[in-house]
Predict the 3D structure of the following.
Amino acid sequence: MRLARLDRPLPDGDRLPHALYRAEQVRRLDRLTIERFGVPGIELMERAGAVAYRLLRERWPNTRRLTILAGTGNNGGDGYVVARLARADGLDVRMLQLGGADRARGEAALSLAAYRDAGGVVEDCLGLPRETDLYVDALLGTGLERPVTGRWAETIAALNAQRAPVLALDIPSGLHADTGRVLGVAVRASATVSFIGLKLGLFVGAGAEYRGELHFSALDVPAQVYAGEILAAARIDWARESRLLAPRSRIAHKGDCGHVLVVGGAPGMSGAARLAGEAALRAGAGLVTIATHPRHADWLNLDRPELMVSAVERPDDLEALIQRADVIAIGPGLGRTDWGRGLWERVRALPHPLVVDADALNLLAESPGCGPDWVLTPHPGEAARLLGVTTAEIESDRLGSAQRLQARFGGVVALKGAGSIVHGPAPRVPAVCSDGNPGMATAGAGDVLTGVIAALRAQGLEADEAARAGVCLHAAAGDRAARAGERGLIATDIIAALRPLSNGLAEVDR
């Protein structure tokens, strides 16, 4: 899902912030704004409703019939503001209430009273209207911690079955604000407008699936409010991380750009090592050697002669190659036979910077250890094996899973998936990549990422920098490749986009 830009930007301009927060952090920011800076809570609610209504009119200008679903908390209060503004603008508004309007308290009760004073009518939500142009989800907000049940779950399921678009206020109802987990059932929004601080759950887990187009407003909260709050994570993208790649020196030679050694490609899996090697070249490595099984070493580079290929029968065959390498990427197509195990045991003991992927991660899970200078690139299944848990447990809290992986294995962890997470040693906060698309769920895409990170490391970036920039470059290349459609995208399409993007020659769709 894209991160939308408006022709006439919201009050915070046309860029989403890079700071991501947990729900409790945003509540603290809200309280501080009220208590220390004297902004009344009802004023923040009015601002939120006004921003949401402005987006509504810009995004769906032909809306005439509007249905707003409100809960009893502040999220519902935002909805009452939208309803009041819409009625004043001449729209046909139906305000449907779950949980009983008499349960509204604080600012939500004030907003409800203002809506009624303006002539608005509140109906109990006994079902959804058949005819409406747009729904506004103002049901549950960010405080939800338990599964949605009863009439609330029935209403959300019915909403998801409607054809009309849905605008979610702050976060789609039913989505956990910290982890992006679906708590039983969640609203599938066409667009979400988030307030004060971007919620982490909009970028991890199922967040990208449920949020739709994402918009943001800080509601003119004073900048000082944010000073004392440490980020839960940082949102990263290629537009920002590309700054790490300095222009090439006019007198550079291939040795200055680093030598990557890719170790992998057991019989039947030669393509994985080949993809990693070509990706490393396209991401700027000066030299790439593939150490692979003798069965296919003679022809692995037939249509890519720039790749050097060496047959390795035993771990000792690596010695001369190791001496020339700046960075070693191990795992693509490695397998878990005696051949692959022997190569892994030799490489893991080296002082070289390593990028560890695929079967090398599975072998690491069998014999855990801590590496100070490696980048681990697990997908959720590999992460589950490394931590001895289920894949579902990894996906239920992706940021927490990345933190546990880094604590147990050291180095830098790049947990792949929707909203790939990069977690390195303190004091850097973890990072969540907002580039990428579901077309990248294709064979070999992970091998391409391994080559990209290894190439950036070989060109002089530190492990954490190479992981962040590599994840974003890989994701942005996937976005560029997906311009022709997500379905049918293959790993070599991603490789083809690496060169122009890494040179700043192509604009990335947002």
Remarks:
- The CA atoms of residues 71 and 98 lie 5 Å apart.
- The radius of gyration is 25 Å.
- The longest strand covers residues 65-70.
